Amino acid sequence: MKAGRQTTVRDRIVLTGLGVHSGALATLSLLPAKADTGIVFLRVGDEGERSVRVGPDSVSTTELATVLGDDSGAVVATVEHLLAALSGLGVDNAICEIDGPEVPIMDGSAAAFVAAIEAVGLRTLAAPRRCIRILKPIKVAMGRGWGELRPRDGGLRVEVEIDFDNPTIGRQAYAADIDPATFRRDLARARTFGFLADVSRLWGAGYALGASLDNTLVVAEDRVLNPEGLRYADEFVRHKTLDAIGDLALAGAPLIGLYRSYCGGHRLNYAVVRALLADATAWCWTDALAERPAASRPSYAGRGAQLAMPAFRADHS
């Protein structure tokens, strides 16, 4: 997303659905917010209210999904599809009020969030949008996978490649400059996926309790089990790209640069964000008016986030 003026949603948005892992019903409300609020999750319920602002120190774990929390524990899980929609459409400020432990999975993609946001529209605020400009390459490797951020003008570009032994998926690559039209058309409808062989183990571990053919692409040895088939011929890599956009939003501001990954996932995407912000020479603030000096950078040397190992194969998004 390029520099310009900050935005927020024009009116209240309400969505209800099940969490894909918890199976819990939750109501999510997106509320307009003033400039420089950022994206804030507000957990409400009988036990009171807790809030967390999306940023590199807000991540509790990246096991199975991206979970936000604070020193007292998790606040809300599976935020990546909503964050991808907000980032992809250029929403800088919103209060995400939720009464359950997990953002509703909806149909397994970001399409419902995009449709709801576009139904009310965006309001442009007076304050300039602050972006993080990549100044030098940052690369993180995990096993055979790797991710990197590189300098590039003109907004965010993503180049994602996956490679699976499963013949239904195989090797796929996707690349695009990310703007609202591209996100809406080419990425928003790509669904999360998992493998039939993993189902019993995930259920036994207390995960995927809300998963079904209505919200997950289920891959058998030689075919997709969903009766309607794929929405895109390369839906798997497009969903991995959607996830990456949501995970990159954990930087707390839009990125100007190129993100490339090979065989990545939530854990790797977030690790690249952490590595970038830990190196004060690798980035700077920029806005619609002028690039800000290094002295204006906030410190990201807060509490260390847990980078938990996945409870299942990293190919399950």
TrEMBL record:
The keyword Zinc applies. One of its GO terms (biological process) is lipid A biosynthetic process. InterPro entries: Ribosomal_Su5_D2-typ_SF, UDP-acyl_GlcNac_deAcase, UDP-acyl_GlcNac_deAcase_C, UDP-acyl_N-AcGlcN_deAcase_N. The active site is at H266 (proton donor). Its cofactor is Zn(2+). Zn(2+) binds at H81, H239, D243. It comes from the Bacteria. GO terms for cellular component: membrane. GO terms for molecular function: metal ion binding; UDP-3-O-acyl-N-acetylglucosamine deacetylase activity. Its EC number is 3.5.1.108. It catalyses: a UDP-3-O-[(3R)-3-hydroxyacyl]-N-acetyl-alpha-D-glucosamine + H2O = a UDP-3-O-[(3R)-3-hydroxyacyl]-alpha-D-glucosamine + acetate. Pfam families: LpxC. The keyword Ribonucleoprotein does not apply. Keywords: Hydrolase, Lipid A biosynthesis, Lipid biosynthesis, Lipid metabolism, Metal-binding, Zinc. Pathway: Glycolipid biosynthesis; lipid IV(A) biosynthesis; lipid IV(A) from (3R)-3-hydroxytetradecanoyl-[acyl-carrier-protein] and UDP-N-acetyl-alpha-D-glucosamine: step 2/6. Catalyzes the hydrolysis of UDP-3-O-myristoyl-N-acetylglucosamine to form UDP-3-O-myristoylglucosamine and acetate, the committed step in lipid A biosynthesis. Belongs to the LpxC family. This is UDP-3-O-acyl-N-acetylglucosamine deacetylase.
